[in-house]
Amino acid sequence: MGGCRERVTVLATVVALAGGAFAADLIHKEFHFKVHRHSSVSVLNEYGPISVRPVSGHQVIVNAVLHSAKVTVDTNQRGSRVEIVSHLLPGANAETGKVEYDVQLPSDAGVTLDSSTGPLYAEGLRGDVVLVGNTGSVEVRDVSSGHLHIKTLDGPVSLTNVSDGHVEITSVGGPIAMKSVSGPLVQVNSNKGNIAYDGDFGSAGQYLLVTNSGNIEAIAPAFASIDVVAESVKGKVVNDFPLRPTNDTFVQRAGSAFAGTLGKAASSVKLLSFSGKIHLKKRQ
Q1: Which of 59, 74, 251, 262 has its CA 20 to 30 A from that of 99?
Q2: pLDDT (0 to 100) of residue 44
Q3: Cα 34 to Cα 37, 57, 73, 82, 153, distances in angstroms
Q4: What is the mean pLDDT of the chain?
């Protein structure tokens, strides 16, 4: 079992409010954990942001800023599995219970982040990543090889440079934007949020973008290689590509449904909405 070192610093900050002033004590804690390859790190934070980024070596470094003494940070390590939990004390609220986490860990670590209100940010990872949010934003950059699972209520989701892994996103109402995202499986489900995809749909992947009342805009280059189906029951469907017709039994309807292939049809693409607009757009 690896050891954990903790460092605590209290910072006094004077905040002006309604013509007066009060002192708010920010408590800074730093934790160090020794781990092995393919470690697992989870952070559960009721209030406040969580960000993770890679660091060299086999270590996990957690920097936590507590907004009051109404919340503590509980840590637990079992082998290479590290758990960080914000523990709310009686009387804590969204402000006094807030903790800001900055976590550095090996790039091959498996990561689980969960925050009700704070934004979640992950970059430069190669292991499996699970992000669970509520109203805060979710941003992922430069992630490859692992599985990426995102579940949120209304927070916006942004993915940039995600490759060679499974991507699964579930959202109720937040907008979802993906740029340069590819892999064997990219699956997005939203109830009313808009979905924007800007990439090349990779090779030999399955892409399923589904929303109930939101719009879907998928931007791809002229050289994209796809077998595509797009359908909106009550919304408008627009296609910028000269697709070759398919031989299946799909019923095409002008302005609301189309299907066809482009290039060698290496990847399967399905764009589905009940009442939103769908636009398969050629990159200029």
Answers
A1: 59
A2: 98
A3: 10, 9, 18, 10, 34
A4: 92
Gyration radius (Cα) of the chain, Å? 22
DSSP conformation class of 204? S
DSSP 114-129: EESSS-EEEES--S-E
Beta strand ranges found along 89-232 (DSSP E):
99-105, 110-115, 120-123, 129-132, 138-144, 148-152, 157-163, 166-171, 176-181, 185-190, 195-198, 206-211, 216-220, 226-232
- Residue with tokens 């589904």, as numbered in its chain: 210
Task: Give the dihedral of Cα atoms 263, 264, 266, 269; nearest 10 deg.
Answer: 50
Per-domain boundaries in the chain: 137-284
Q: What is the pTM of this model?
A: 0.91
- Predicted local distance difference test score (pLDDT) of residue 252: 76
